[in-house]
Recover the amino acids of this structure.
């Protein structure tokens, strides 16, 4: 009567409990996926990539005979036509492509620059840190949109320049946030262990620290995608962005403004498109932020 | 603490210098700034005259020195379009932006802070979900769309409010709402998270143990502590708001600095553009500095060093 | 005959989380007499803090809920009272001291304001009298120059002084029951003894009954009259301290005491209990300590042992005792 081990019955029960618990976890996780965001974003990406192939009309071809068709009235032009007789739906689909191209490119490049600066600045410290921090602060204190329109006006308005402009203004946000993460990680024990093991500093930076800031980077990038899309639309709205007749959503809004009194739909649909896309980005970003919380650190 | 303040001031000055360099370089990005400023029908002589007038024939560091030394004294050169000093032009329009900004800020605080507090108080209940939805919407709607929609509904369809311009209170409502919308959402979020952070603390538990009624726990014990980050963020947000009036002013034809910049760009008046951007950045740097110093003063750990 | 001031009967407090139901307190019963101090001892996570929060009905919601049982305080069941009634009891009749003095005080209010608050809430005194009372209480907890201290903020004080202020706040309305949740764990060792002595003195002077929550048997020995040992949400043994120290019966109690290094006994290796406390989300059949018990029997795993009595005032729940002394209902 002095058994010190668990009987086999207890052990099996424990194992069963663990596997059912694991299955329970997966189901729980799936149920909490941000379905709305993923659907919207998938739709935008799909339209952005494949849009031109199945858009009902050519987004830039004008057809003055059919101008000012209101939405939902004709089978051919579901969302109506604009002042040049162009199908609004097709233009929106074209705009998705532009927003996506600009958005993803800027997020990728600005994110890369910002991350690199953050790693160098946070990890190496010293003069690097001072220099990069001053640069970051400087770029963050510039009035975002003002500088963007000036740069766009000076360089000329086209897709390539917009991407450049938005990258120049955007990198600083990533750098600041990620730098504080790097600073925290620098003090972590596993970094100290790597140093004592003789790992070179660059190697530590990329192999140990970088993977641990990916979580924050992903959340930031998702949220910044929304911000960038709005920025591109703003620039186009002011006439400094993608040049006509490209169907940028912002440009559509700017053009539609002139006809607001008798063609209200020209302003509504592009705005809805922007709003839904950005909403999806924000929802996804928030969901990721909660899921990737350092307390549960997993991706 | 003195050491900290001094350090921050030096940092701010460095930033300002870097900003001035960037601003200076802005119009020179694509080569000769004169190409941006001259109308197409100008002659060779016009160009030479302009070049000498603006001092563009000088070596670049001379030009920069002239710019920065002038800027420190408030002399930003002459506006090309208006017959005035750039600074004077700026000051003509700035009060309007300030008015709009103040109204928008007031709106965002009045909506944002109570929503945020309410949301933190009853986490998970409908006020919280509503506030969270509001915050989400606020940050997803592009500013120009909000403005246009407002015009569509209230000016075009209902005819209640004027579409543009400055005048009485009715002219201020829609622009202020448009500008403040995003920040109201941001403020809600910030207040909510600051409150939730504080409500987790031990001294809040102590307050409940003492038998303090719940409303006092929230408003007196918690909010007083949450106020610090909320207020400092609000101050910073105000400057960001001021610098972000470009679109709102354009939509509503509000005669402020944002619209000035756009007009100046279109009329190729780059000295004015430089002035506006420089002052806007300067404002931000200054406010940032002020906020940091205030924070240092209130945080006993830094104060008693 | 000592009067019973608190009687907890079969208290159950559960937490309903996304990953399961945590049975933090699963059938806890004990009673406390006037002027007495009972120690609630156990490892981290055994439910001691939740028990005390349940008494004050401050269990974190919405996840936590008191599922069943009774808490009879001064003859009335606290679980039947309304929130407004509870608020009148908190701070006035029942009070609590928390573990960390560095975070227990609100940084933006002065010491005076924080000590005055419960007095203002629960006692109808004129303004000047309130401040007199504050000075009096600060003197009681031996704060030097209370006049000056009253106007200061918490960050201007040391940990030991802050904890005494927390004590002052707790005692300001002369509660009948004081719950101290590991009050000395965050203090320096040298201050710990001082603080305990102070609390003990005040307690006797004001005739306050106390529940001392701790994992440290040394503290138990110093201030408690009786002890209840908790494991996995239940009380496994209760006894007067002399009795418990001299004749511990439950294997868990014995294991806890064996883990304490003793000056007289020289060992090569310190004894530590094998295994881990159970996950409180799982429904435990039988005795929760069974997987780690050196004297486990078959029946221990199948059924929870009934309460048995060793002698007057000494109860425990263990199958080893169930045969002797007869089961108690």
């Amino acid at each position: 009567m002095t058994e010190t081990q668990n009987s086999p019955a207890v052990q099996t029960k424990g194992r069963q409990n663990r596997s059912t618990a694991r299955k329970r976890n997966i189901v729980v996780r799936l149920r909490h996926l941000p379905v709305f965001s993923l659907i919207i974003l998938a739709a935008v990406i799909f339209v952005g990539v494949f849009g031109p192939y199945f858009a009902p009309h050519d987004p830039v071809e004008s057809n003055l005979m059919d101008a000012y068709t209101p939405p939902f009235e004709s089978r051919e032009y579901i969302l109506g036509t604009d002042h040049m007789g162009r199908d609004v739906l097709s233009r929106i689909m074209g705009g998705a492509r532009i927003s996506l191209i600009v958005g993803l490119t800027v997020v990728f490049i600005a994110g890369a620059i910002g991350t690199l600066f953050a790693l160098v600045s946070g990890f190496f410290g010293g003069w690097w840190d001072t220099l990069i921090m001053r640069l970051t602060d400087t770029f963050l204190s510039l009035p975002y949109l003002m500088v963007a329109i000036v740069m766009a006006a000076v360089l000329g308005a086209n897709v390539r320049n917009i991407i450049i402009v938005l990258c120049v203004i955007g990198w600083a946000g990533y750098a600041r946030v990620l730098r504080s993460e790097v600073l925290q990680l620098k003090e972590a024990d596993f970094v100290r262990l790597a140093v004592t093991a003789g790992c070179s500093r660059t190697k530590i930076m990329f192999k140990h620290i970088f993977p641990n800031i990916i979580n924050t980077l992903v959340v930031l990038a998702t949220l910044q995608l929304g911000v960038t899309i709005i920025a591109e639309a703003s620039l186009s709205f002011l006439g400094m962005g993608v040049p006509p007749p490209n169907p940028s959503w912002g440009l559509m809004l700017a053009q539609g403004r002139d006809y607001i009194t008798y063609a209200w739909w020209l302003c509504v649909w592009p705005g809805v498109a922007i709003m839904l896309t950005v909403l999806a980005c924000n929802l996804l970003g928030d969901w990721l932020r909660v899921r990737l919380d350092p307390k549960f650190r997993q991706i | 603490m003195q050491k900290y303040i001094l350090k921050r001031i030096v940092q701010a000055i460095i930033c300002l210098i870097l900003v001035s360099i960037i601003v200076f370089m802005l119009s020179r990005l694509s080569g000769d700034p004169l190409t941006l400023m001259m109308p197409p029908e100008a002659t060779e002589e016009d160009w030479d005259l302009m070049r000498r007038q603006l001092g563009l024939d000088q070596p670049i560091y001379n030009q920069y020195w002239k710019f920065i030394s002038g800027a420190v004294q408030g002399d930003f050169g002459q506006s090309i379009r208006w017959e005035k000093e750039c600074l004077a032009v700026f000051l003509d329009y700035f009060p309007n932006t300030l008015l709009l900004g103040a109204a928008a800020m007031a709106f965002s605080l009045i909506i944002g802070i109570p929503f945020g507090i309410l949301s933190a108080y009853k986490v998970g209940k409908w006020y919280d979900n509503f506030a969270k939805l509001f915050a989400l919407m606020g940050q997803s709607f592009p500013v120009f769309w909000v403005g246009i929609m407002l015009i569509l509904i209230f000016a075009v369809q209902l005819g209640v409010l004027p579409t543009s311009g400055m005048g009485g209170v009715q002219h201020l409502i829609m622009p202020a709402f448009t500008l403040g919308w995003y920040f109201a959402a941001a403020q809600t979020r910030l207040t909510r998270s600051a409150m939730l952070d504080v409500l987790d603390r031990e001294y809040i538990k102590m307050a409940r143990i003492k038998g303090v009624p719940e409303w006092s726990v929230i408003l007196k014990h918690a909010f007083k502590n949450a106020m610090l980050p909320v207020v400092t963020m609000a101050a910073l947000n105000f400057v960001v708001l001021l610098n972000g009036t470009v679109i709102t002013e354009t939509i509503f034809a509000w005669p402020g600095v944002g619209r000035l910049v756009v007009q100046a760009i279109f009329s190729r008046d780059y000295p004015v553009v430089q002035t506006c951007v420089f002052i806007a950045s300067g404002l931000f740097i200054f406010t940032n500095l002020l906020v940091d110093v205030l924070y240092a003063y209130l945080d006993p750990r830094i104060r008693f060093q | 005959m000592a009067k019973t001031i608190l009687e907890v009967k079969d208290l159950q407090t559960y937490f309903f989380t996304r990953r399961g139901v945590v049975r933090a307190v699963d059938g806890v019963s004990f009673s406390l007499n006037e002027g007495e101090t009972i120690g609630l001892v156990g490892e981290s996570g055994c439910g001691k803090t939740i028990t005390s929060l349940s008494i004050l009905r401050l269990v974190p919601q919405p996840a936590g809920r008191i599922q069943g049982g009774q808490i009879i305080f001064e003859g009335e069941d606290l679980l039947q009272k309304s929130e407004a009634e509870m608020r009148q009891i908190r701070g006035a009749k029942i009070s609590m001291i928390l573990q960390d003095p560095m975070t227990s005080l609100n940084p933006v209010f002065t010491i005076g304001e924080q000590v005055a608050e419960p007095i203002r809430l629960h006692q109808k005194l004129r303004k000047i009298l309130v401040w007199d009372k504050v000075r009096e209480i600060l003197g009681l907890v031996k704060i030097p120059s209370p006049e000056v201290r009253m106007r200061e903020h918490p960050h201007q004080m040391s940990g030991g002084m802050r904890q005494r202020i927390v004590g002052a706040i707790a005692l300001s309305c002369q509660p009948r029951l004081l719950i101290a949740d590991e009050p000395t764990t965050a203090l320096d060792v040298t201050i710990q003894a001082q603080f305990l002595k102070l609390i003990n003195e005040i307690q006797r002077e004001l005739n306050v009954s106390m529940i001392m929550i701790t994992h440290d048997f040394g503290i138990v020995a110093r201030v408690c009259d009786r002890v209840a040992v908790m494991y996995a949400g239940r009380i496994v043994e209760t006894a007067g301290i002399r009795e418990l120290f001299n004749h511990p019966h439950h294997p868990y109690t014995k294991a806890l005491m064996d883990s304490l290094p003793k000056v007289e006994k020289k060992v090569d290796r310190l004894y530590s209990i094998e295994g881990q406390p159970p996950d409180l989300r799982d429904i435990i059949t039988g005795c929760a300590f069974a997987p780690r018990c050196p004297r486990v029997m078959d029946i221990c795993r199948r059924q929870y042992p009934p309460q048995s009595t060793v002698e007057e005032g000494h109860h425990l729940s263990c199958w080893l005792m169930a045969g002797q002394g007869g089961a108690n209902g």
